[in-house]
Design brief:
By secondary structure, the chain is of the alpha+beta class. It has three domains: 88 residues, OB fold (Dihydrolipoamide Acetyltransferase, E2P) (Beta Barrel), CATH 2.40.50.100; 111 residues, RNA polymerase II/Efflux pump adaptor protein, barrel-sandwich hybrid domain (OB fold (Dihydrolipoamide Acetyltransferase, E2P)); 219 residues, 2-Layer Sandwich (Chloramphenicol Acetyltransferase), CATH 3.30.559.10. Helices cover 29% and strands 28% of the residues. The strands form seven sheets. Strands 17, 20, 23, 24, 25, 26 and 27 form a seven-stranded mixed sheet that branches. A four-stranded antiparallel sheet has the order 1-8-6-3. A hairpin with a 2-residue loop joins strand 26 and strand 27. Helix 3 packs parallel to helix 4, helix 9 packs across helix 10 and helix 9 packs across helix 11. The radius of gyration is 27 Å and the shape is globular.
């Protein structure tokens, strides 16, 4: 039986890729889900796993070729001649099936998500010699966006930890070894070199860089040693060359060297604590700075009287909870108000792609959430088609997963607009930063009683400042102000939302 290997989904708006590197050649045995090749798009690097175990057949798309989504890359021959034993796992090739409970089982890095190629080992919950149950949590990995828990693939004894806390590992790395019994523990050291050998070999051989990267280096006249590779085994990708070129052009590749710290006395230095930024914090810092450097960002402000929303919420919150099983909060009102305003001012729900403006005829609402490790923005898809109850349930579920570090990459991608509620922390007014490539973000703030002039009289009202940061390249001042006014009107008279006014 022959199985086809095809180009996987490459991501939103990505229609083609370049075959960067083949890790297998015709005739090689392959295991199910083993990485066969690496594709390079203009945004991310995508690894293509084997859809089935067998023997590598014909390679249809050679390195350097450009392929579209679902294009045929190669074939795999399944069956008796497919060398099934090696395809299962390098460290377990010689172990008979009847002795599965006694063999050494490798603990591998789980799937990290699309476009995520490496992670940092943050915490080991077990130490060498500990007994573990199947599916018991062994360690936690930290990626640019989420934390990933690694369960034990089998019950036994943790006999080896190959990636210590703080180590950076790629998507196919081995983390440790579990032996099923004392006999297996004794054989584990013999099995380890079998999996360690490829790493040593890859470190000692010449790494084949992506074809597009070679071309870019040749055109720019850049030496290979001047580029740091981010691909598999340190392979240089096209984006690495672009970063190296940008670093040379900006003459500021290392801010620490250009702007060293001010002198610190020995007494003060002894009381300082230096902690490496987490990968999530580094990503947050980079994305926010990129947003400022790219977009023509501007913020406009308004304020809203929350009297009617608070009265409506107080009147129906008990009945709402009884019927829908979730509390009625303010976020559903703001989400509905923003959806309403985005229909009238669609450029706030759009994004720039080169010289085009891409208008979204849907609303995937990002809800910024603070977590112990940093800010994340889970996305509620098709929020414009949801009821109040559906929105509240989605916000509660995403918020809980965000706090527990359980969000997947897919849950934080594809947003078209974002709401950030700094009011829960007591913020009275702020200027939120755009979440690229989005063109708008609404900042909510603290509800505070303030004296207001209403019909010629001074009355005390619960007021909230609103802030809309927007990309002035495609959103004009009129559109931004109109958006905030529509949000204000909908919240001050929530009946307008029911009437679609």
């Amino acid at each position: 039986m022959t199985t086809e290997v095809r180009v996987p989904t490459l991501g939103e708006s990505v229609t083609e890729a370049t075959v960067a590197t083949w890790f297998k050649k015709p005739g090689d045995p392959v295991a199910a889900d083993e990485m066969l090749c690496e594709l390079e798009t203009d945004k991310v690097t995508v690894e293509v796993p084997a859809p089935a175990a067998g023997t590598m057949g014909e390679i249809v798309a050679a390195e350097g070729e450009t392929v579209g989504v679902d294009a045929l890359l190669a074939t795999i021959t399944e069956g008796e001649g497919a060398a099934p034993a090696p395809a299962k796992s390098d460290s377990k090739a010689a172990a008979p099936a009847a002795e599965a409970s006694d063999e050494a089982v490798d603990v591998m890095v789980p799937t990290l998500g699309e476009s995520v190629t490496e992670a940092t080992v943050s915490t080991w919950f077990k130490k060498v010699g500990d007994t573990v149950a199947q599916d018991e949590m062994l360690c936690e990995l930290e990626t640019d966006k989420v934390s990933v828990e690694v369960p034990a693939p089998a019950a036994g004894v943790l006999t080896e930890i190959t990636a210590a806390e703080g180590a950076t590992v790629d998507a196919a790395a081995k983390l440790g070894v579990i032996s099923g019994s004392a006999g297996a523990a004794a054989s584990a050291p013999a099995a380890a070199p079998a999996t360690a050998t490829p790493a040593v070999a890859s470190g000692g051989k010449d790494i084949e860089d992506a074809p597009a990267a070679k071309k870019a280096m040749a055109e720019a006249g850049i030496n290979r040693d001047a580029v740091t590779g981010s691909g598999r085994d340190g392979r240089v990708m096209k984006e690495d060359v672009a970063k190296a070129i940008a670093a040379g052009a900006n003459a500021a590749p290392a801010p620490a060297a250009a702007a060293p710290r001010a002198p610190v006395s020995s007494d003060d230095a002894a009381r300082e604590e230096r902690v490496k930024m987490t990968r999530l914090r580094q990503t947050i810092a980079r994305r926010l700075k990129d947003s400022q450097n790219t977009a023509a960002m501007l913020t406009t402000f308004n304020e809203v009287d929350m009297t009617e929303v608070m009265a409506l919420r107080n009147e129906y919150k008990d009945l709402f909870l009884k019927k829908h099983g979730v509390k009625l909060g303010f976020m559903s009102f703001f989400t509905k108000a923003c959806v309403h305003a985005l229909k009238e001012v669609p450029e706030v729900n759009a994004e720039i792609d080169g010289t085009d403006v891409v208008y979204k005829n849907f609303v995937h609402m990002g809800i910024a959430a603070g977590t112990p490790t940093g800010l994340v923005v889970p996305v509620i898809r098709d929020a414009d088609a949801m009821s109040f109850a559906e929105i509240e349930k989605a916000i509660a579920e995403k918020g809980a997963r965000a706090r527990d570090g359980k969000l997947s990459m897919a849950e934080m991608q594809g947003g078209t607009f974002t709401i950030s509620n700094g009011g829960v922390y007591g913020s009275l007014m702020s200027s939120p930063i755009l979440n690229p490539p989005q063109s708008g973000i609404l900042g909510m703030h603290k509800i505070q009683d303030r004296p207001m002039a209403i019909n010629g009289e001074v009355v005390i009202r619960p007021m909230m400042y609103l802030a809309l940061s927007y990309d002035h390249r495609i959103v004009d001042g009129k559109g931004a102000v109109t958006f905030l006014v529509r949000v204000k009107e909908a919240l001050e008279d929530p009946r307008r939302l029911l009437m679609d006014l």
